[in-house]
Amino acid sequence: MLEVRNVSKVYEGKVAYQALSGLNFTIQKGEFVGVMGPSGSGKTTLLNVVSTIDKPSSGEVLIDGVDTHRLNKRQLALFRRQELGFVFQDFNLLQTLTVKENIIFPLTLENVPIAEQDKRVQQIADKLGIAGILNKRTYEISGGQCQRTAIARAIIHDPKLILADEPTGNLDSKSAKDVLETLQRLNRDEGATMMMVSHDPQAASYCDRVIFIKDGALYRELHRSDGREAFFQNIMNVLSSIGGSSDEFSSVRV
Ligand SMILES: Nc1ncnc2c1ncn2[C@@H]1O[C@H](COP(=O)(O)OP(=O)(O)OP(=O)(O)O)[C@@H](O)[C@H]1O
């Protein structure tokens, strides 16, 4: 589903900075993959390149076979809108709209008929446990409910790839667990393909696989084989070997 082929990114400036160097990895359809690494290792740069927001200096990013950086501006905007779903740390919901209006926003851009919009929003809200708050405004709901609303918006158009950037970064531990279980359920039950950048080893332990990057290059990769607790321990072990200051990774949650 996602192929990152020999991707490098150099930020030009007074002093050029190589943020990614020759990165290669793939994400199969239906996989839930975490990306971890110390501060400054290139996670955001990678996410921006995969999400087509930024261009690599060299290399290719293929999403379902489409070489995204060869698309023109208009094709790219359409591709992003139709094929990708985004979940951000700060939710990025529109405060003046209700939960329902936020969720259907991507469909209104695509001129999907109202009856179809209503049907889809109801199905997704049921799935995510937010059917009871559809008519509330975002300032009337909790952080966890905001993030589940954002997830609903990210998946309502059935994207090929869901990209999540620290989706639990602004949540208390209970809401974080809730949101991670929601993402895991979407992955397992609906076959959603996801890439999630996170500092949090607890969050990453919900993934099938975690890719660690250091200094813009692939450092290690871990597959989850046993239970989540064992995977969490393995992730912690890699983090302690990767370096960077320990407070760059959020404190342990149980
Ligand atoms: N627009 C830019 N211009 C120049 N250098 C940049 C730019 N954006 C990022 N960098 C540099 O590239 C490197 C990678 O940054 P990036 O934001 O991708 O790291 P990160 O792993 O997401 O870090 P964090 O976990 O702290 O968010 C850093 O050294 C950063 O200073």
Topology:
Blueprint: E1 2-11, E2 17-27, E3 32-36, H1 43-50, E4 58-63, E5 66-67, H2 73-83, E6 84-87, H3 99-109, H4 114-128, H5 143-155, E7 161-165, H6 173-190, E8 194-197, H7 201-204, E9 209-214, E10 217-223, H8 228-242
Parallel strand pairs: 3-8, 3-9, 6-7, 7-8
Antiparallel strand pairs: 1-2, 1-4, 4-5, 9-10
Helix pairs in contact: 3-4, 3-5, 4-5, 5-6
The chain binds adenosine-5'-triphosphate.
Question: Would you write up a description of this structure?
Answer:
- The structure is a single chain.
- With 254 residues, the protein is of the alpha/beta class.
- The chain has one domain (2-248): Rossmann fold, CATH 3.40.50.300.
- 37% of the residues lie in helices and 24% in strands.
- It is built from eight helices and ten strands.
- Strands 6-7-8-3-9-10 form a six-stranded mixed beta sheet, with helices on both faces. The protein has a four-stranded antiparallel beta sheet with strand order 2-1-4-5, with helices on one face.
- The two termini are 32 Å apart.
- The model is unreliable at 250-254 (pLDDT under 50).
- Bound molecules: adenosine-5'-triphosphate.
- Residues 2-240 form the ABC transporter domain.
- This is ABC transporter ATP-binding protein.
